[in-house]
Design a protein that fits this description.
Layout: H1 3-9, H2 28-38, H3 50-61, E1 67-71, H4 78-87, E2 95-99, H5 111-124, H6 126-131, H7 155-173, E3 179-184, H8 191-203, E4 209-215, H9 221-231, E5 236-239, H10 246-257, H11 263-273, H12 277-283, H13 294-299, H14 307-319, E6 323-324, H15 325-332, H16 336-348, E7 352-355, E8 358-361, H17 364-373, H18 376-392, H19 399-413, H20 416-432, H21 436-450, H22 464-476, H23 481-494, H24 501-517, H25 523-532, H26 540-555, H27 559-576, H28 579-592, H29 596-609, H30 613-630, H31 633-649, H32 653-671, H33 674-685, H34 691-707, H35 711-725, H36 732-748, H37 752-763, H38 772-783, H39 792-798, H40 804-818, H41 821-834, H42 837-853, H43 857-874, H44 877-889, H45 915-925, H46 930-937, H47 941-955, H48 960-969
Parallel strand pairs: 1-4, 1-5, 2-3, 3-4
Antiparallel strand pairs: 6-8, 7-8
Helix pairs in contact: 3-4, 8-9, 10-11, 11-12, 14-15, 14-16, 14-17, 18-19, 19-20, 20-21, 21-22, 22-23, 22-24, 23-24, 24-25, 25-26, 26-27, 26-28, 27-28, 28-29, 28-30, 29-30, 30-31, 30-32, 31-32, 31-46, 32-33, 32-34, 33-34, 34-35, 34-36, 35-36, 36-37, 36-38, 37-38, 38-40, 40-41, 41-42, 42-43, 42-44, ...
Length: 975
């Protein structure tokens, strides 16, 4: 039996003496309709959710909380909770709300944030909003009320500008009063909105802006990944409203009915609803038997509606929620007075609510029920009508969503040719916004429709290959690597390279990039692309191919070939006056230069030529790699810190920060600043780090742990690093470094045979000659292992030592082989000049043993004392024990040799604050925000937030102001 028959047979007027309430119910449409019919007041009772509400209110007051995520199934009360929260905020608190439309990834990039920007324009006016933004804001591309953005920046750069502008705008809005930004229905969020939200959470730390997001736990993998990353942020709270208890169901029923319900009714509704507030509200319609389907209960809302109101309701369900008034007016085809009356009826019945310049359903389940109840022919006709209207009157919807909505309606109406054209147009809009994931989805829709549309149909896109090329470009610009490679495979197979060599070369170049990013390597594609491009008439593409080939070869250890291609790329860049190409080519020449002064000159030219943030940061990253490789660690750290500062200023810390941090850790490790290095590794690994960066960070921590005698820690890090490195073509040098750590670990555990086997395997690999520094390190280690099943002499003769670090290792190798004290003394001088404390100490031990062999006891004693001092400073207990063992065997009687302190890690100060936390506290006391703290200490805002949170806990302070006062009161910051 249908709900309508059930309702009529039982007498619809039986419910006229029932009082209902909203907002405790999440089905306002249902009870709003009933209330309108019987003209009864609406209860404002708020049932349950006290703990969740307190978390939101506390989060708004707590400067360490910058985001609260509300998770729950449909109907559980997320939106009702948010409304209660915002209603209880001070009247002057700015509250900005954006909703993710149900079509989500199929629709408009940044949809909820654009809605918020439009709200701000209405509240502040375009002039006041423009005053808070740059002169030509990237937001101008979305909001015609703002000054237009005429820049020719690439989409990726424009995207970074957009993120920065929204961040700065929220910060300035909150300067006067703390603000709340709510993003509802994140389970429908487009990729760009998710990325922007994650960016804001990371960068709004300690700013008086609270971000609130609602979502259903069952969502796309991308949403789950984002939530997992946010969960690691100490400034993010997550609340999950649970189903109502039986008592709370009774309170909700009492509010609806206006009197205490009978216990058997409460029990029956509690059992049927499972405590879901929306279901409780629907089931309360009957005190007796109830129909089985919730959708039938929800559709009871339509009872008593006028025919005009039903038309508007159906149009709204098909058009989407929210829907603009103008579109409803055009699609409903009602006279103005009749339309206004129908809309008012639906609002009075609480089926629709007003939002901005349109309307949306009170609950998505109600919208879905109305849509599903339409006959297929009714849905088809309404979609077709909406498609015709959007074609004829495009201004009925915002420009950013026009093509996407047209594509959806055309497809639903069966007009596949129109859907294809609209999807193609929508992909162009997404490209303009730098929203590559959304662009890719629209292009995939074009490809899906391609063979379904008759060949005779008019198309704005020439052929399928054009679509594939756009897909490849979207992936090249950041969407996803795997799909781009697949599309490139298909396009390269379909294209005749003899007829279209330049087009084929471009495809090869793009596939090389995508394969490299996926860890597959792109050298073969680059070489083939170079063959297809004429050398007699250089193009920018040829220069880019040669630059990328130079980079691939340089990082693969083929320096001479890399230098040749880099020089050719530089020539093209200078001929065509392409600054970014000139910068990259100079940087690769610097990486491959055998002379230090020449390398520095190349990097100076690269820095001068870099004219965009991405290129500049790339140059800084490669320059720091070069400085670490040649052993100029202090200059490397200075360059790294400048790069990290630029990454913060251009909102690229997430992208470039891990690479620069790796180089920083390597420099600190080499200099013997191990506590700093380990702290930096710990901070970095507490966040999301790319696999290769995580592997190198763990390798450095493993090396430090090993030298300090923490063998289990070193082994765990080495094992994890090995898993992360895998077979990546970029990881050759680090696989050699891993072999060295594992071999040393085996020696420390007394397994000489295992150490020898590990080294022997590494020394016969193809990667050895491509990475001289790491190769010399292994040769030195192998020279100290007896009965190594590999002849090292041939390797040593063939291996170059182009850098001061390589030359120092070669000297140590020669000293081990010869036992000559003068060569050992030379090795000590070389390591001391480089500042590498551990290697200096090891060479001092070698020098002491060589001096003893030659009878020079005073020289041996001096070397042992120096080695012991360094070992103590490093906290390297095994090194110190080795020095003491040599002294004991030689009967030198060095009773005053220093010992290693019980703990070589940071010693906690007052209140248990570590030196790093005291650094952060000093900056907090100066009034710096987490973002500024992060910039000063060259760490991420998330890490700064973690430190601030720990400081407040240790000091027992409720705020940053209290922490600063405590610091001064207890003289914690006194020099």
């Amino acid at each position: 039996m249908s709900w309508h028959s059930w309702f009529r047979e039982r007498g619809g007027l039986r419910i006229m003496n029932i009082r209902y309430f909203w907002p405790a119910s999440l089905c306002p449409a249902l009870y709003g309709m009933i209330g309108s019919v019987v003209n009864l007041p609406v209860s404002s009772t708020f049932v349950g959710r006290g703990g969740e509400l307190a978390t939101l209110l506390d989060g708004q007051r707590d400067p360490l909380v910058h985001a609260v995520l509300v998770a729950g199934e449909a109907g559980i009360g997320k939106s009702r909770l948010i409304r209660e929260f915002t209603d209880r905020l001070p009247a002057e608190t700015p509250v900005l709300i954006g909703r993710c439309p149900e079509f989500g990834n199929e629709g408009v990039p940044f949809a909820p944030f654009i809605a918020i920007m439009r709200t701000l324009i209405r509240r502040l006016g375009a002039e006041r909003l423009a005053a808070l933004l740059p002169v030509r804001p990237a937001l101008g591309r979305w909001l015609p009320e703002l000054p237009p953005d005429w820049s020719s920046d690439p989409a990726e750069s424009d995207r970074i500008r957009l993120f920065g502008e929204i961040l700065t705008l929220f910060e300035r809005l909150a300067a006067a009063e703390p603000a709340v930004v709510v993003i509802e229905d994140l389970h429908w969020a487009d990729d760009s909105s998710r990325e922007l939200l994650a960016f804001l959470v990371a960068n709004l730390a300690a700013t008086p802006v609270l971000l609130v997001g609602t979502y259903r736990p069952v969502g796309a993998p991308e949403l789950r990944q984002m939530l997992a990353e946010l969960a690691r942020n100490p400034g993010v709270r997550t609340i999950a409203p649970t189903p109502f208890t039986k008592h709370e169901v009774g309170r909700q029923l009492a509010a609806i009915m206006g009197n205490e319900p009978e216990s058997n009714l409460v029990a029956r509704v509690f059992e049927r609803s499972a405590g879901n507030p929306l279901f409780v509200a629907a089931l309360s319609l009957s005190a007796e038997d109830t129909p089985a389907e919730l959708s039938e209960l929800l559709l009871a809302c339509r009872s008593g509606l006028s025919d005009d109101a039903l038309v508007v309701l159906q149009v709204s369900a098909v058009a989407g929620s929210p829907v603009g008034h103008e579109l409803v007016e055009a699609a409903a085809e009602l006279p103005e007075r009749a339309l206004n009356a129908a809309v008012r009826e639906l609002i009075d019945h609480r089926l629709l609510v007003t939002v901005d310049t349109g309307y949306e359903f009170h609950h998505v389940l109600l919208k879905r029920a109305v849509y599903a109840d339409l006959l297929p022919i009714e849905r088809n006709r309404l979609h077709a009508r909406l498609a015709r209207l959007l074609q004829a009157y495009p201004n009925l919807v915002p420009v950013e969503s026009r093509s996407a909505e047209l594509a959806e309606h055309a497809r639903a109406a069966g007009d596949l040719a129109l859907a294809l054209e609209a999807s193609w147009a929508a992909s162009g809009i997404a490209e303009h916004a730098g929203a590559q994931s959304e662009r890719l989805r629209h292009l995939e829709r074009v490809l899906e429709l391609w063979d379904k549309v008759p060949a005779s149909a008019e198309r704005s896109v020439a052929d399928r290959l054009d679509v594939l090329e756009q897909i490849i470009d979207a992936c090249f610009c950041g969407a996803t690597g795997k799909r781009g490679i697949e599309a490139a495979d298909e396009a390269i197979e379909a294209l005749d390279a003899r007829l279209y060599p330049h087009r084929a070369a471009l495809l090869r170049h793009r596939r090389a990039f995508l394969r490299t990013r996926a860890g597959q390597g792109g050298r073969d594609d680059l070489l083939r692309a170079l063959e297809l491009l004429p050398s007699e008439a250089p193009t920018q593409l040829r220069g880019e191919v040669q630059a990328d080939l130079a980079g691939t070869l340089a990082f693969g250890g083929r320096s001479e070939d890399a230098a040749r291609h880099a020089a050719a790329a530089l020539e093209v860049g200078e001929q065509l006056a392409v600054p970014s190409l000139i910068a990259r080519a100079n940087a690769y020449l610097g990486l491959t230069a055998t002379d230090t002064e020449m390398a520095m000159a190349y990097f100076a030219d690269a820095n001068a030529a870099a004219d965009d943030p991405r290129t500049l940061l790339d140059v800084v990253t490669w320059e720091s790699a070069m400085l670490v490789a040649i052993g100029d660690y202090d200059k490397a750290i200075h360059a790294i810190q400048q790069g990290l500062r630029a990454a913060h200023e251009t909102f690229r810390f997430t992208e470039q920060g891990p690479l620069l941090t790796v180089k920083w850790v390597q420099a600190l490790h080499a200099l013997g600043r191990w506590d700093e290095a380990v702290n930096l590794v710990d901070e970095s690994l507490a966040e999301s780090v790319p696999p290769l960066s995580a592997a190198v960070l763990r390798l450095n921590r493993a090396g430090i742990s090993l030298t300090r005698g923490h063998l289990d820690k070193a082994g765990a890090d080495a094992d994890t690093a090995g898993e992360l490195l895998g077979g990546s073509p970029w990881a050759g040098q680090y696989r050699l470094e891993l072999a060295g750590v594992r071999s040393r670990l085996a020696l420390a555990r007394g397994s000489d045979d295992q150490a020898a086997a590990i080294l022997a395997e590494a020394l016969v690999g193809d990667e050895l000659m491509r990475h001289p520094r790491e190769a010399w390190m292994l040769l030195v280690l192998g020279a100290r292992i007896p009965d190594l099943p590999v002849d090292l002499t041939e390797f040593a003769a063939a291996l170059s030592s182009p850098t001061p670090v390589g030359a120092a290792y070669r000297t140590v190798y020669t000293a081990v082989a010869s036992g000559d004290p003068t060569i050992w003394a030379d090795a000590v001088r070389r390591w001391r000049a480089l500042g590498q404390r551990e290697e200096e100490a090891r060479s001092l031990l070698g020098a002491a043993e060589a001096a003893l062999v030659h009878g020079n006891r005073s020289e041996a004693e001096a070397s042992l004392r120096d080695a012991s001092t360094i070992a103590t400073e490093l906290g390297a207990a095994p090194l110190l024990e080795e020095a003491q063992s040599v002294a004991s065997r030689a009967r030198l009687g060095l009773d005053t040799l220093p010992g290693v302190a019980a703990s070589s890690r940071q010693v906690a100060g007052p209140f248990g604050l570590t030196p790093r936390e005291l650094e952060v506290l000093r900056l907090v006391a100066e009034g710096l925000t987490n973002r500024r703290v992060a910039e000063e200490l060259f760490i991420s805002p998330n890490t700064a937030g973690v430190h601030v949170s720990r400081i407040l806990t240790k000091l027992g302070a409720a705020s940053r102001t209290e922490a600063a006062a405590a610091a001064h009161r207890h003289r914690l910051l006194a020099d």
